[in-house]
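Regression check, zinc ion case 412:
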Amino acid sequence: MIPEQATQAWIATMGPEAIARSNSYFEGGYFLMLAGWAVTVVSCILLIWLKLLPRVRDGIEGRIKNGFVQGAILVIVATIALSILSFPLDLYAGFYREHQFGLATQTLPAWLSEFAIGFGINLIISALFISGLYQIVKRAPNTWWIWGAGVTGAFMALMIAIAPVFIAPLFNTYTPMEPGPLRDDIIAMAQANGVPANDVYVFDESRQSNRVTANVSGLFGTTRIALADNLLERVSPEGVRMVMAHEIGHYVLRHVVSILVFTLFVVAIVFALLGTAMTRLIGDGRWGIRSVGDPAGLPLVIAVAATLFTLATPLFNNITRFHEHQADIFGINASREPAGFAETALLLSEYRKMQPGPLEKWLFYTHPSGYDRIHMAMTWQAHEMEAGRYPQGPLGPPEGYRPDFVVVDGGE
Ligand SMILES: [Zn+2]
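Current build output:
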């Protein structure tokens, strides 16, 4: 069997129903992205029209002299107003739709309480970060976009570093993986590739969803590799080894730092465009906004920034996909598990369309498609078998293989 045929044979194990469901879930995501942008822009226009922030600013500036505190209050008001307006879409996309596709495991009260925690964190972070950016705009009206991108980088690095310690535990419990052959194997693989790991963490993703997932998080001293309990539950040891080898790849190749650097280039460009657009739109004080550095103009900033960042989404996706592809190559060579790779690529199709067109992939994919991943695994296996470095075996799924998909029964 040639790799192309073997790839199609793996994909065929999904069956037409699962393929249709996967396509429909992922393609729906394109419209949700558009809907999210539209809701943000319309909500911002409403706030601008109501002059909500200029009114609050006029009300507080007599009493509060500190510009940073003034800015933070305005950010909090805008964030609360926009969150209320976008809540119906968040509820649909985050809760109802996830249940409809059998991906979520949470009850509505549990979902709402996590949503509230996320909202609270977002409120604090936004107030500090955005009000801080406004201070930079005031002090450096022409070059703020460079300083702003620098501060964004430092802030993001700080957030990445503290996330595993302070934020992730608010949503999930992380425990060291149970001792056993698979754990020993993962640690041996990590150490063989220069990762100073003595522990692998398991987190209770099953609290929220059925998703098969793993990640590398943290920065500086807090870096760690973690896998979801669902992964251990639903994937063979070969598949787990491949996923962990992929995560080890992210670590070894320093992807957290690399993605951050790439991202900041795009952020700097978006900030520069945002500054130009704001100067033109506000003119000499339109809609009660005094200048670009006036935090009362935040809804306008958010509307323009949401538009620019939505347009830049393919750039961010390509930056991520480039790194994910590297981690895949690293993973297959470190784990030597082509069938495990195909197995997990199939399970990931529960939330990612298998075979996109080239433009679709360029626009929307943060990871290689399932097709690309299985094709890579089969090509690797074919060459390794030919060279005598891999046991001869079926190139393609074993006889009668069926992926362990979540059963969706009528949208329960
Ligand atoms: Zn990855």
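Comparison notes: The chain has two domains: 3-154+255-386, 174-251. The domain at 174-251 is CATH 3.30.2010.10 (Zincin-like). No diff flagged against the previous build.
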